User: Fold this.
Amino acid sequence: MWATAMTAMRATARDRPNTLGAGVAVKRIQENMDNNNNLMIPAALVDKLVAAQHITVLTGAGVSAESGVPTFRDAQTGLWAQYSPTELASPEAFARNPQLVWNWYEMRRRLVEQVEPNAGHRALVELAAIAPQFTLITQNVDGLHQRAGSVNVIELHGGLFRYRCYECDMPVTAQEWQTGAIPPKCPTCGGNVRPDIIWFGESLPERNLALAFQASRVCDVFLSIGTSGVVAPASSLPYEALSNHATVVEINPKETELTYDATFVLRGPAGQILPALVAKMKQR
Assistant:
């Protein structure tokens, strides 16, 4: 269903009058750096951001990677390389071998604890303070946005440092669970505690998904940052914004599915581009 919906929205976006064509998108990418290799921010984009009453942001794994957080598959090294993603991140895998899955997420938690939010994370906190209304949606589970100071973050895929019971689904904190077992046991029913992560085969939280789509529909500017644009349903969000006449900005070092539909494309890392964007806004 999501693939069909996204295809329809892409067609709608491409058929809109005055939509930037591929040639214009490439030109914007090429003009992102001047002859001295200095970052250039289009004045028209700054105008849109300053005038916006509601800015919505979607972040993906690329933002966390700039802090040194490996992607799911990049983390599958050494011992973990022998397992497929579904052997480490699915309800069936946890039911079959809960200790293996728990240890995998413990390793990932330790990796995240060793890194810090980057300049991109911090710039989004500044942007939220400037915008009359601001919504931050993330596909990331590492909590780096919150550590940087962002509030009311809409987490589509859960949180690495939150837990719930596999049996009764009650939230569980590290202070509450019964220690000694791997995985820990739920204090309510004695079931296995699991990470509060959306696994393969599970549905995204309905409330968070609804909030994300609503924020995409009503925003004036939508920023897609560090996301590949291929993981549904999050990949539909910028097209939801385009369909409602928002300015859509892609910030990414690489070309994605969104590149030739976005209104502006800024090619580069979020930690470089976002602080420059915020600085330009503050100069107005």
Notes: The chain has two domains: 1-68+117-157+204-284, 70-114+160-197. Residues 31 and 40 are 7 Å apart (CA to CA). Residues 1-31 have pLDDT under 50 and may be disordered. Residues 98-113 form the longest helix (16 residues).
